[in-house]
């Protein structure tokens, strides 16, 4: 029982950091642009398929897939922003317009992936030496260690970017007050472009890491990732980077522990019930606006 | 004072007021023409089973008209976009199928059960109306997923478990088709009735500025709740009829997120917040869907996505909305 328990906790930490990364990239876009990217899950999924092509088709190490996914998604997002960014930001209700727009994008990406890779589940085939580690009587696959390791590098790097660099500070300022940001002379449109592309790049990397942890994915897994991402950031508080990481952890822990105690199907339920509970008590999310003001 | 009077002679001022005032008021004849159109559509719909080999296409056409109009009742006027709209469709389908299969209820009882289930679910979900924008959409979506998982967890003799319910008794598809036409035309008629009475104006005010509407005395919460229950009930009836029509339902199909999103897309393409928009959008998209689906199964989703994205970028107000924006004089005729 205790080893099951430690196993579940280790899993929850691993998943939590990945969910946190998922939420972090989503929250950057939402914060900077007031745009809800409903195609975020498909960007993550595209990263997973990059991992599939790089490892299973071309036979390279999954580590190669990480920069590949980042660059590919970054460039694709630049193109998407060039087509739609200005129109969406100028819409009467940018939030809802982008919600629908990106839903359309997600349908196009999903059907594109369906066309390229067929509907059956794909998995990433790779060889790590050694295949797994044995720590305190627990068998931990090396793939998971690599995924969590990369995520543990990326999250602090993102926080450094957001809290210590000028573009990062501008992004956080955009969450607080876009108009004021414009008044002090920041090019909000270029900032949005940077935010959107970086977010897509991170989404791609997250996809590679998720492919290492969850072995199988189909062209229709994107919506699940999107929903998880949204649940995570709504839990933590929209636009709050720290909230995204906390929300990811909370979601992963509730999911893993309920799965352990009650069962698989209850695990999915628990996460959403916690979301409903948090939103009912604190509509701004766990650390919502408070964090930005202090 | 006299300077002002001189600069605009009274007669001219009165004329300009007279000219401007009715410009944006709906022409009385327009309502009659619209009602006659609806009556005409109903007559054609009644005649279709006599001339057409199958009613399947027509059944789904009227289903989407009903769903898009029902969604528009909520989303178009108050600005709440429920991505979990499929929850109502699903609960209706399950209520009707469960009552028919496990309790041998007659069709009318199954439909009333579905209506009650939809209304009850809407009341249960009412606290989410405190949320706004994306928060509301995401929570609504998660509630639909929660509901689907709960139904899978229920015992098999209550809700059929993960494999769903297969209705073994036979239902006359023509009767179900007529009922769907009635639900569909009924929901459009309700939308029309709301739009031409002061309630429509109040709802528009909520959509434009919630706080300003509340300050001038609009009961925003009550109206919103009424719209929410109404649209949920209509969606539940659609689900019930579709469940009986296809006589096999399962959690994945009944709570399919595409039901929510298609209803949103069809309504948005035609024009959210207009009465005619969702009808026009649903007809165009169902016909297009039928044509594309028949020829290119894989391209179907892609083209659906393309239409959605292009609509948002180039016709953010939908077909009817864009028309009214470009040519304000049509406001007397289209609504």
Can you tell me about this structure?
Chain A is mainly alpha-helical. In chain A, 77% of the residues lie in helices and 4% in strands. Chain A contains 12 helices and 4 strands. The longest helix of chain A is centred in the first third of the chain and has 32 residues, at 2-33. Mean pLDDT of chain A is 83; it is low at 290-294. Helix content of chain B is 77%, strand content 1%. A two-stranded antiparallel sheet of chain B has the order 1-2. The longest helix of chain B is centred in the last third of the chain and has 27 residues, at 220-246. Chain B is globular. The relative contact order of chain B is 0.16. Classes of the chains: A mainly alpha (294), B mainly alpha (335). At the A-B interface, helix 3, helix 4, helix 9 and helix 11 of A face helix 7, helix 14 and helix 16 of B.
Rg of chain A, Å, rounded? 19 Å
Number of helices of chain A: 12
What oligomeric arrangement do these chains adopt?
heterodimer
SSE run of chain A: HHHHEEEHHHHEHHHH
> How far is the N terminus from the C terminus of chain A?
43 Å
Spans of at least 5 consecutive residues with low confidence of chain B = 1-6, 17-23
Structural class of chain B: mainly alpha
**What's the Cα radius of gyration of chain B?**
22 Å
């Amino acid at each position: 029982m205790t080893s099951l328990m430690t196993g579940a906790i280790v899993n929850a930490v691993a998943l939590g950091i990945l969910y946190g990364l998922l939420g972090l990239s989503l929250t950057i876009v939402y914060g900077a642009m007031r745009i809800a990217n409903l195609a975020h899950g498909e960007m993550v999924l595209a990263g997973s398929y990059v991992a599939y092509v790089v490892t299973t088709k071309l036979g390279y190490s999954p580590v190669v897939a990480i920069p590949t996914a980042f660059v590919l998604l970054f460039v694709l997002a630049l193109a998407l922003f060039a087509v739609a960014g200005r129109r969406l930001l100028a819409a009467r209700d940018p939030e809802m317009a982008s919600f629908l727009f990106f839903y359309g994008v997600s349908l196009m990406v999903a059907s594109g992936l369906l066309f390229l890779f067929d509907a059956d589940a794909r998995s990433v085939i790779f060889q790590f030496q050694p295949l797994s580690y044995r720590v305190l009587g627990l068998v931990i696959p090396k793939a998971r260690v690599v995924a969590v390791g990369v995520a543990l590098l990326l999250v602090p790097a993102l926080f450094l970017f957001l809290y210590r660099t000028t573009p990062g500070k501008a992004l956080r300022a955009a969450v607080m007050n876009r108009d004021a940001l414009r008044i002090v002379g920041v090019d909000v449109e270029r900032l949005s472009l940077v935010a959107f592309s970086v977010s897509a790049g991170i989404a791609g990397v997250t996809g590679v890491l998720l492919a290492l942890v969850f072995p199988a994915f189909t062209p229709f897994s994107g919506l699940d990732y999107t929903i998880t991402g949204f649940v995570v950031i709504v839990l933590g508080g929209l636009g709050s980077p720290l909230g995204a990481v906390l929300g990811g952890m909370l979601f992963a822990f509730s999911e893993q522990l309920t799965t352990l105690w009650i069962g698989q199907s209850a695990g999915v339920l628990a996460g959403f019930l916690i979301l409903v509970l948090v939103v009912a008590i604190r509509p701004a999310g766990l650390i919502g606006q408070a964090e930005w003001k202090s | 004072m006299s300077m002002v009077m001189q600069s605009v002679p009274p007669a001219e001022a009165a004329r300009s007021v007279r000219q401007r005032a009715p410009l944006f008021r709906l022409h009385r004849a327009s309502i009659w023409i619209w009602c006659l159109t609806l009556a005409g559509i109903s007559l054609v719909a009644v005649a279709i089973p006599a001339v057409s080999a199958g009613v399947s296409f027509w059944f789904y056409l009227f289903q989407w008209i009903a769903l898009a109009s029902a969604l528009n009742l909520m989303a178009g006027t108050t600005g709440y976009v429920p991505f979990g709209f499929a929850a109502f469709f699903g609960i209706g389908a399950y209520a009707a199928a469960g009552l028919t299969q496990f309790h041998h209820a007659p069709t009318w009882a199954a439909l009333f059960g579905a209506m009650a289930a939809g209304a009850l679910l809407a009341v249960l979900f009412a606290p989410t109306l405190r949320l706004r924008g994306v928060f509301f959409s995401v929570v609504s979506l998660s509630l639909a997923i929660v509901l689907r998982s709960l139904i899978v967890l229920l015992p098999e003799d209550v809700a059929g478990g993960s494999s769903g319910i297969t209705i073994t008794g036979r239902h006359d598809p023509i009767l179900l088709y007529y009922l769907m036409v009635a639900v569909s035309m009924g929901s459009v008629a309700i939308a029309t009735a709301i739009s031409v009475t002061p309630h429509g104006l109040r709802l528009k005010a909520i959509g434009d500025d919630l706080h300003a509407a509340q300050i001038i005395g609009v009961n925003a919460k009550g109206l919103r709740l009424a719209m929410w229950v109404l649209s949920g009930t209509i969606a539940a009836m659609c689900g019930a009829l579709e469940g009986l029509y296809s006589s096999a339902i399962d959690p994945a199909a009944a709570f399919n997120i595409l039901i929510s999103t298609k209803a949103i897309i069809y309504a948005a393409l035609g024009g959210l917040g207009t009465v005619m928009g969702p009808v026009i959008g649903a007809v165009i998209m169902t016909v297009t869907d039928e044509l594309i689906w028949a020829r290119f199964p894989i391209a179907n989703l892609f083209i659906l996505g393309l239409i959605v994205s292009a609509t948002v970028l180039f016709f953010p107000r939908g077909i009817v909305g864009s028309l009214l924006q470009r040519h304000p004089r049509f406001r007397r005729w289209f609504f």
